[in-house]
Design goal:
Structural class: mainly alpha
Number of domains: 1
Mean pLDDT: 89
Largest sheet: none
Strand content: under 5%
Distance between the termini: 49 Å
Low-confidence stretches: none
Order of helices and strands: HHH
Number of strands: 0
Radius of gyration: 14 Å
C-alpha cells in the first residue's frame, strides 16, 4: 500500500511542477527573475528524485510564494545583481 501512496505523490508532484513551470513562463517579470524561479524549480525537481516528500513541501512553499507575489530580486543573466 505504501508504494501506491508514493506513486500517487509522485504523480501529484509531477503535475504541480508542470503547473509551476507554466506559471513561471507566463509571469511578467524581468528575465533574471524568471531564470531564478526556473532554477528553484529545477532544484525541486532534482530533490524529488531523492526525497519526494521534501520536494512536495518545497513545491508547496514555492507556489505560495508565487501566489503572494514573492519573487527573487532581479538579477542579470550572468547572476550579478
Amino acid at each position: 500500500m505504501e508504494r501506491d501512496d508514493q506513486l500517487k505523490l509522485y504523480g501529484l508532484v509531477a503535475d504541480r511542477l508542470k503547473v509551476a513551470h507554466a506559471r513561471v513562463r507566463t509571469l511578467q517579470v524581468p528575465e533574471g527573475v524568471r531564470m531564478a524561479l526556473t532554477r528553484k524549480l529545477l532544484v525541486i525537481t532534482a530533490a524529488a528524485k531523492h526525497d519526494l516528500a521534501d520536494a512536495a513541501r518545497r513545491l508547496e512553499w514555492f507556489m505560495e510564494d508565487l501566489d503572494e507575489g514573492r519573487y527573487p530580486e532581479d538579477v542579470h543573466a550572468d547572476g550579478s545583481p
